[in-house]
Amino acid sequence: MLFFPSLNKLFVIMKLDQILDMLGNDTRREILQLLSEGPCYVSQVSQELNVGQKAIIEHLKLMHHAGILETRDKKIEKGRPRKYYGISQEVILEVKIGHRLFDISDISPVFDNELLKTFPKLEHITAKLEMLSHLTEKDRMVELESIYKQLEDERDDLDTAKRIVEYFLGQVNREIQSQKLEKELSDIGF
Amino acid sequence: MLFFPSLNKLFVIMKLDQILDMLGNDTRREILQLLSEGPCYVSQVSQELNVGQKAIIEHLKLMHHAGILETRDKKIEKGRPRKYYGISQEVILEVKIGHRLFDISDISPVFDNELLKTFPKLEHITAKLEMLSHLTEKDRMVELESIYKQLEDERDDLDTAKRIVEYFLGQVNREIQSQKLEKELSDIGF
Questions:
Q1: Any chain A CB within 8 A of the CB of B123?
Q2: Following DSSP, what letter does each residue of A125-151 receive, concatenated?
Q3: Of the candidates B26, B157, B169, which has its C-beta nearest A151's C-beta?
Q4: Top-level class of domain B16-87
Q5: Phi, psi dihedrals of residue A88, rounded to the nearest 5°
Q6: What is the DSSP letter of A89?
Q7: CB-based contact (8 Å) between A90 and chain B?
Q8: What is the pLDDT of residue B122?
Q9: Contact criterion met (CB < 8 Å) for B98 and A90
Q10: What is the pTM assigned to this prediction?
């Protein structure tokens, strides 16, 4: 059994601009959603989404070229091997648009033991993962589900904290700009 | 002087799918980046980006229709008033693509006093904001810049924590799936 298999390190370098180009299409978003559940071959995708094969092939090729999708050939009993398309790697990207704010960034999952130490709550949750091997199979499953739930809660908390930080960053930025403007005006005698 | 002006509450409801459609184009991303620095009129945008006015007008109309941009007429000395385009509101969106993971969500800035209490470090930073009015103008500016820096650091920390949480969520999810598969296989006698 693979216990926490290491992620594929041979990440394709994906350009965020290219990913946004790919995401700017309804059918391609639907394809990505479908493939996130598992690899499919062309006619499967075409049937699931009720979109012609020719269009599906075009979209799949584009996304493969952009590095979001990977392909794998699978032998079948008769005929040529089937080409399966799947998500190549996890990617999380964040787009910020606002006043004096424009940023597209890659916030894909990472692991860093050093950084983990600065988040005691998180370290506590993940420490439980190391205890798993001492458990019976049934208890391990219960514990895994419980850890998953805790991680989800932690993610929600972090999202909330982030949204609040962004709110204050916006407010403080606006205040700084307005103070600067006031100073400029008073400097020229208004 | 407006001190922390309240945000415009009349938010246009933006559909995330529509925003992604808008973001899926290089010129539109460039327009958004330009307008994040301040409102512009058509020929300004056209000159700055070195793209024909006809194409610019088309892109601006699309983004206005999608609710990302707002317009404002500004009188000029001679001739018709000039139509300025600007970012309508701050929006932060997050796209996650991976194995058993597909999510597009709006994580735009929010403020919630109740939630703030659960983040002591954040509450500490924001408490300083309330002390600002006691300061001289010069000290206030220094303090604002310092708070801004702290908030940025906090945002970086939260981003890091989130990426680590996402990493573990992926790992735990894979482990759960592999345990389920093992159980299924053993149930049918493998």
A1: no
A2: HHHHHHHGGGS-HHHHHHHHHHHHHHH
A3: B169
A4: mainly alpha
A5: -80, -35
A6: S
A7: yes
A8: 82
A9: yes
A10: 0.80
